[in-house]
Design brief:
globular; single chain; 4 helices; mainly alpha
Length: 102
Amino acid sequence: MIPAVGAQGRSHADLVRPLRHRSFGVYLMKIWNRRTVPRRSLIEYVWHDWWWNWLAPRAWGSVTRQSAFAPDLVWLELKGILEAPMAYRKTYRQLAIRGGNG
């Protein structure tokens, strides 16, 4: 287990939790569907800021062992990206059954 990480002093488990639950990807899909942000801006953010400047360098760094980030966190985030559409559908299907509006 890796001890506290970063200036916030969060533990490894604290960092894993949101990645495991795919919360950021689901949130981005909610923004996309509700159009609370122009879609072009969202696409630019996801491609340029999240993928190209954040995730891809960390994924490459974990493969080449040149990243200070724990490889399991990087790969959990990639897995979360792939699982987010299914999690989004499941979440909003359950809300519809319960009569919620999310």
